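User: Can you predict the 3D structure for this chain?
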Amino acid sequence: MPGYSNHKPHVQRRLQRIEGQVRGLQKMVDDDRYCIDVLTQVSAVKAALEDLETVPRVTDQVPAWDPGSAVDSDESVVVTHNWDEIRRLMWNYVGIVRTDKRLMRARRRLDLLREEIRDYYWRFKVTRDVIELRNIAEVAHLIVECATRRKESRGLHYSLDYPERDDHNWKKDTVISRQI
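Assistant: Here is the predicted structure, written as structure tokens:
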């Protein structure tokens, strides 16, 4: 259990005790015990679970995040603009009908956007929107890369440069990996 390594035996004993309480509770219900007895046992299980949350975790000992020289951004419009630009370029260049030329245009623009996002990421404090923008840009990059490698039309993905299906060479998943 990550984060509990120093207290693992203690946590395991508590969990076994809670498991026994839950089994006892199940037997009480099966035996049609009085409601107040069942509710008392439910309360005991709940208290045991809440007590388990008090076990110190390694994450409790991790120091607060230091943003270094990153500052709050007053340029959130950049995030919104880049998000919109990625959405539009994916629709216009990488949509259902595509060409190699459109895919290359999308790749070049995405490379610039990814660089801008990377720069923004390191200069300003991270927000949920920046993380989501970075993820969207990475997924868009992967889609363009896969579409560029596939030299056929299949299903909803039609290439004007390769209008025919090619089961012999392409009836398989497109797999890409990070170059290290």
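The CA atoms of residues 41 and 50 lie 14 Å apart. The first strand starts at residue 97 and ends at 98.
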